[in-house]
Target: HTH merR-type domain-containing protein
Amino acid sequence: MNISEAAKLMGVTAVTLRYYERVGLIPPVTRKNGGVRDFQQEDLNWIEFIKCMRSSGLSVESLIEYTTLYQQGDATLEERKRLLQEERNQLVAKYEEIGATIQRLNGKIEDYENGKFQEAEKRLPDWTTKEAMS
Model:
């Protein structure tokens, strides 16, 4: 299947697929006569994997490293696992940070709902006075 068909099927643009191949996110796609890309099921599987991992928050750099390791064969299994574990740990840390932020926002919203917002905001400096701005 050509790049336009593959892009449509995978829900990405042809530009994205060219980028994925150029930076090494997917292995080189086989070419037909004249250099036209001929996407096979294996290529589509890689694209789906990349989309899934990107939507999970993995960086392009980590995915390039993963793809490179994968192409080196089973000798890199532990290294690939380690890479995915590190990415998971970073995502868990972000998740926990987001959870804490949501809790703070929920508390602030409750202050507004309970009429306590004025008490909470009295602790903030008054930015309208000259003294507070200096």
